[in-house]
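re: that complex we talked abt at group meeting.

here r the seqs, copy pasted straight from the sheet so there may be weird spacing, ignore it
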Amino acid sequence: MSDKFISIEGIAKRYPGAGGATTTVFENLWLSMARGEFACVIGHSGCGKTTVLNILAGLDAPSEGAVIVDGQAIYGTSLDRAVIFQSHALLPWRTVLGNVAYAVSSKWRSWDRAKVKAHAQTFIDLVGLSGSEHKRPSELSGGMKQRVGIARALSITPKMMLMDEPFSALDALTRGTLQDEVRRICLETGQTAFMITHDVDEAIYLADKIFLMTNGPGAVLAEVVENPLPRDRGRTDLHRHPLYYALRNHIVDFLVTRSKTFATETPGHDPRNVPLVHIGKPGLTIATGGDEQRLAWTAGTSPGLTA
Amino acid sequence: MTSSLRLRAGLVSIVLLAAFLGIWHLATRSAGTAATMSPEYAKLMGLTATQGKSAMPGPLDVGVKLWEHLRRPFYDNGPNDKGLGIQLAYSIARVGTGYLLAVLVAIPLGFLIGMSPLLSKALDPFIQVLKPISPLAWMPLALYTIKDSSISAIFVIFICSIWPMLLNTVFGVASVRKEWINVARTLEVGTVRRAFTVILPAAAPTILTGMRISIGIAWLVIVAAEMLVGGTGIGYFVWNEWNNLSITNVIIAILLIGIVGMLLDQILARFTRMVTFPE
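got the structure back, here u go
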């Protein structure tokens, strides 16, 4: 982890609760990502995943701590960090082209109309929506709407993409196609991507690194799982990889049982040095944050890991 | 299917209208026997007493009179005898002026209040108190301060149309979908541009609904206001014809008030449709 493109340093989010008490969604959260990395966050609802993403996007401010992107602490939103919203968030009074052009003209304010249009068109073509430029969002299917959302996010050529369960509202077939598209585009453009998902298979297919979060309130980042699958993985033969099921079982086990019991079972958990899990290679497990070497993988908690 | 439904609905409407006119006609037919009286006395008594004619005009009387009005809508024979077109034009001009002034005040003000939670809370008690006041209650105050009955009527229209527009604008602006605002925020769109490119189009259907409610109220109020201030306008016409005991003209005025009100509403409804986009 020499290249920390994104570094979340000890952030917390608290809300004032009833009777003067404060509710802590999470605190002392440390997390880092390298440039060009695709990270997925998995955790149950209410663990603060979306809050983390909103803080990264600058839409929300942490109660404590800081977020450093590309060597600079962030304050507020930025055109360097594009967000793909769960509900696509297209402006219904604008056409497909209008929605993308709105983003383009926001980034390059001095561009004339023709230049903005041409640039927007490139990204509409990229997501495969050529021919639907003049349709309004209401005339598009769910998958097409999300494609527009992706085109809009990409059109401002951001340094990183933030995705909040972008495909959760889509049917399985469309979801698969869009995952392929997003993966292709991110690899081609070398995007750094941070995605929230509920879907274990989606995380395995897309991510280089999977962040596992425990249940909130008081959620912590429990583990960082490194994806052992090769970078040029394909959707069709993904499940034939010898480590696929070990990885999948590890994540599912975490979600089903360990996400609830993690806090009590792991009293010495250091949020600054979250264990990095290498599936199938227990001896190589190292810590993320510091220099300290830690052993995180234990055969007992994750059956089938060495498959 | 929809066209045949429309056709059938149209047929039912026509049958209902015919039934209404028929019953009206039968109910206002001459009652027959006329009382015998000296011709001089009969002159004073009018047709009801002399020929047993109903005091209420029938649909045919109204029709004939309406046709007369429609043939000469813009004649002007002095203060108490003007064509219906002129009277309606006065009313529409007053409503239009007061209403437009209200639009100019309510929409920018509503925008400010909707975007600022502080202003929203601070002004809320004033709005809550001012809103339920009958616009006609302002009339004496307006007459006293403005000292011009025509402008006072416009002021009354202004004060009655401002509240629905103001409240709807506040509501529309304050309840723009968070994610649309977030889109603008992530694109680093400035406040002014955000107001015009996201908040205004998003709130437009709600604002126009408020404007539609306002024009309806303004048209209701102008009749009453003109009855009070007198001089010109369809409201004054109604009161004047009541004083003339010309029930036929009163009925015609009622009909025209309804039609103009419907047209005003339809215009605003069309504008509302133009700015409403399904998601």
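couple things i noticed - The CA atoms of residues 55 and 198 of chain B lie 60 Å apart. Chain B has twelve helices and no strands.
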